[in-house]
Each structure stands twice: as C-alpha cells, then as structure tokens.
Design the sequence.
C-alpha cells in the first residue's frame, strides 16, 4: 500500500471511528452522531481511489414481474469507492436494488444526492427524473475492509406503462398495471347479488419491505363515483357494500398497482319503504347493508310491536364502516316525526367504536325503525346488525 493510500485510509478510519464498534444499539447511536463525518467523506469522494464501472440502463419489465439482477460486480483491491453511472432514459422513475456481500460493519452508499446506510448490505432506491437523467451509484468501502473484496449485485428496472382504459375483471383475478399520466384505469366487475366487495392489495415482488397497498375508488355502471378514494393494505382492506349490478373499480394510485377483489353474498330484504318493513321480534338480530352511493332515501325499515308500555333498548353495530356513518330513527305508526334516535356519540379522538345503543320508554303500539345514511355520508359503506329487547 502506498503512503498516499495509507493516509487516505487513515482519514476514513478516523472519520468513521466509533461507528463499527460495540453492539447494534451503539452502532445506531454512533451513526446518528457522526452524520457530519459521513457527509465530510462524500465531499472528498473524488479524491479517493475509485473503481469506476460503465453506465447501466434499466431493463423493462411487466407489472407483477420479478426483475433479475442486471450486473454483479467484484469490488476489490485497494480502491475505496465503487462507482456506477445510471442512465434513466425517458422513464419518470427507475428502480434500483443493491445487495452487497463480504463487508463488515455497515454499508454507506449514495445515489444522486441521497445518502444511504445499510446494516445488512441491501437497499432500494427510486430514481426520479427530478434528480437528473444521469445519476450515479457510489458505495464506500469500510476502512476495516481494506484489501478485501465485496460482491455487489445491482438490479435496475422500470415498468412497462399500462394503457389506460376499461378491462373486465372476475372475482379472484389479479389486476396489475403501471399508471403514468392522467388516464383512467377502470376494472369492470359484476355483483351477482347484494353483498360486500373486499379489495386485496398485491405485494411488490421486487421489494422485500414496505408491504402491500393499493388505492382504489368504486364507480357505478355509469362510471360515477359512489365512494371516496381509499387505501387497502394487508391489515386494513377496503370493503364496499353494493347492490346487485355492474360496477367499476378504479385504480387511483400513480405508478405500480396490483389488486384483486373478493365478493361475499349477503341475504337482504327489499324493505326500502315503511310499508315494506320487516317485522323483528324481541331479541332477534337482523342484518343489512347501506350500499355505497345510497343516502337518506335508501334507508331500510323494520317493524316492532309492543303489547304494552315498556322500556326498550335498541342496539346496533357495524362490521363494515363506522357508527358515525349511519343513524337509526324510531317512529310510532302514523307519525312522520321520530320519537327516538340512535346516533353515534360525539368522539374526541381515541379508538373507533363499532356499536351504539339507545334506551327508550315506548307506549303500547306499533313502531318502525329506519336505518339510513345521511346524504353527506353517501360515499361510505355500512354493513350493520340491529336488534331490540
């Protein structure tokens, strides 16, 4: 090793001193404390011995396809910096995966202006045109690894853009695409009966972290939105309550999207008017849905009969939606004004609640319960159950 290189390594070692010693907790703390030291190294990177490789360009893959490693390099000898220029081409974003083996401590890298630290040698970067059409991957060798060789695997890819339009989709089939621009991506589905549509997001096979998520919106047969945009992930999937008919699921994510849907049939009644109210006996639970796009005029009616005056408790809960999305009004036969209302209590933060109840003293007679969403909650979905005792 030359005297110049000895001085270079000594400088690097002093700047990184304390980062590669101690347990993992000490490592993380030292990294935080030595950000300025790392930045100082990058500022003098051009003066360090560098292994410069040829420019690489991304391969084009289909949405849902797994990308293969583009290049595998041996980063060895007495060089301290590995450098590969990246050409983005015409794509607005290109995806870079890097895996380094044979190192000790941590890996410090830089792509464009972004600095990266990895304890396992792997990292993922989205390179965008805003950072320049020509960018550069730089990896710094640890001072403790002088003379050793690293194996560096580089995967660089972009997705084929999916043409916008309408596509039919069956339950269980995957919708996969890459959205670029303002076009609409609509997937036509059919609900064979009243029921619940559940959106399952697909996992990006090219990313080991980040989980699966997708943003969608439900449209009716005339392509009019009946829901708001909503995110689905592995722990919280979007559910749309629907009536029998044709709908469109609109993918609203920019970039990669993957999802499929599941349909669960639900037995419902045609109790859309007071005259068609379903009789409910004391203690019996009945279920129903308030579909996406439905408002106050689309409520569901139930009838109860009291042989004598008594205190009654009406309780309801949701399995889809929120108790804030709907109300239950109780009417005495022949009256157009409710005598009682079951509504969600005012909530100031805290966890969501999925049930509510109301105790009321009712005279002998016939009563009707109307379960409905107010018009300002039209785009919500509610699957409910209700009973009285």
Sequence:
């Amino acid at each position: 090793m030359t005297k110049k290189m000895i001085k270079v390594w000594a400088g690097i070692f002093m700047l990184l001193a304390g980062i590669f010693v101690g347990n993992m907790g000490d490592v993380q703390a030292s990294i935080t404390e030595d950000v300025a030291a790392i930045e100082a190294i990058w500022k003098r990177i051009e003066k360090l011995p560098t292994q410069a490789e040829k420019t690489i360009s991304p391969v084009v893959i289909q949405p849902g396809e797994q990308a293969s490693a583009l290049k595998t390099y041996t980063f060895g000898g007495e060089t301290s910096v590995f450098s590969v220029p990246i050409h983005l081409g015409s794509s607005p974003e290109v995806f870079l995966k890097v895996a380094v083996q044979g190192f000790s401590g941590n890996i410090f890298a830089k792509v464009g202006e972004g600095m990266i630290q990895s304890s396992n040698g792997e990292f993922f970067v989205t390179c965008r045109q805003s950072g320049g059409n020509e960018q550069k991957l730089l990896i710094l060798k640890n001072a403790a690894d002088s003379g050793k060789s690293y194996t560096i695997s580089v995967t660089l890819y972009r997705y084929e853009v999916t043409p916008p339009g309408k596509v039919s989709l069956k339950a269980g089939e995957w919708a996969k695409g890459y959205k670029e621009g303002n076009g609409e991506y609509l997937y036509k589905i059919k609900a064979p009966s009243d029921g619940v549509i559940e959106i399952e997001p697909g996992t990006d096979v090219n990313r080991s972290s980040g989980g699966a998520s997708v943003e969608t919106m439900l449209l009716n047969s005339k392509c009019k939105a009946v829901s708001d945009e909503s995110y689905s992930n592995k722990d919280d999937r979007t559910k749309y309550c629907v009536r029998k008919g044709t709908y469109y699921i609109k993918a609203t994510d920019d970039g990669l999207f993957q999802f499929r849907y599941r349909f669960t049939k639900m037995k419902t009644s045609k109790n859309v008017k007071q005259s068609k109210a379903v009789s409910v006996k004391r203690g019996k639970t009945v279920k129903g849905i308030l579909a996406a796009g439905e408002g106050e005029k689309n409520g569901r009616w139930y009838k109860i009969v009291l042989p004598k005056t008594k205190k009654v408790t009406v309780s309801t809960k949701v399995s889809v939606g929120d108790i804030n999305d709907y109300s239950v009004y109780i009417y005495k036969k022949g009256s157009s004004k409710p005598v009682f209302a079951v509504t969600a209590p005012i909530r100031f933060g805290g966890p969501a609640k999925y049930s509510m109840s109301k105790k009321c003293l009712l005279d002998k007679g016939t009563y009707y319960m109307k379960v409905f969403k107010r018009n300002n909650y039209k785009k919500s979905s509610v699957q409910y159950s209700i009973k009285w005792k």
Remarks:
- The helical segments are 3-16, 24-33, 35-43.
- The longest strand covers residues 255-265.
- The chain is about 10% helix and 45% strand.
- The chain has three domains: 3-159, 165-265, 274-388.
